[in-house]
Amino acid sequence: MLATNGSPACRRATVRAGRLFQHTRLLAAVVLPEGVDVNDDAATMHGSAVRRALADAHLHAAAETLAEVCDVLGPRARAVILDGDPAAALIGLARSEAADAIVVGSLHKARDRTLTRTMSDDLVAGAPCPVIELGR
């Protein structure tokens, strides 16, 4: 399973994952930012066009990111868009798909991570499978 957000680090991770797992079926996942609800009918019904437009923009960006990933990985890739807390959403997907591993890109250098907890840390703590963090 490949978790991506379209960042340069995740694009590099996508290429590397494609090379590492050449003969494996891959599931690519994008998690929408927290607070973005693409199924928010209330936003449309109550005239919150700005909220609806923001959700649509995030959904469109996620779809473009996944299209790029699938272009790199080819026909063995399947794509899914999730919402909610990124680590929790990815852990849930990994469980439901019985993923062998979760691959994520990283921008962090070792010295930058001493005081901050990252989404990758949350993944490692709760994932039902190994988490492979591909850095620079």
Describe what you observe in this structure.
The chain has 136 residues and is of the alpha/beta class. Helix content is 46%, strand content 16%. The protein has 5 helices and 5 strands. It has helices spanning 8-20, 41-45, 49-73, 86-97, 119-126; strands spanning 2-3, 26-31, 77-82, 102-105, 131-134. Strands 3-2-1-4-5 form a 5-stranded parallel β-sheet, sandwiched between helices. The protein is globular, with a radius of gyration of 16 Å. The model is unreliable at 42-47 and 111-115 (pLDDT under 50).
Secondary structure layout:
Layout: E1 2-3, H1 8-20, E2 26-31, H2 41-45, H3 49-73, E3 77-82, H4 86-97, E4 102-105, H5 119-126, E5 131-134
Parallel strand pairs: 1-2, 1-4, 2-3, 4-5
How far apart are the termini? 19 Å
Helix coverage percent:
40-55%
* Main sheet record: 5 strands, parallel
Strand content: 15-25%
> Poorly predicted ranges (pLDDT <50, ≥5 residues)?
42-47, 111-115
Overall geometric form: globular
SSE string, helices as H and strands as E: EHEHHEHEHE
Query: Which structural class do you get from the secondary structure elements?
Result: alpha/beta
Characterize the quaternary organization of these chains.
single chain
Instruction: Record the strand order, biggest sheet.
Output: 3-2-1-4-5
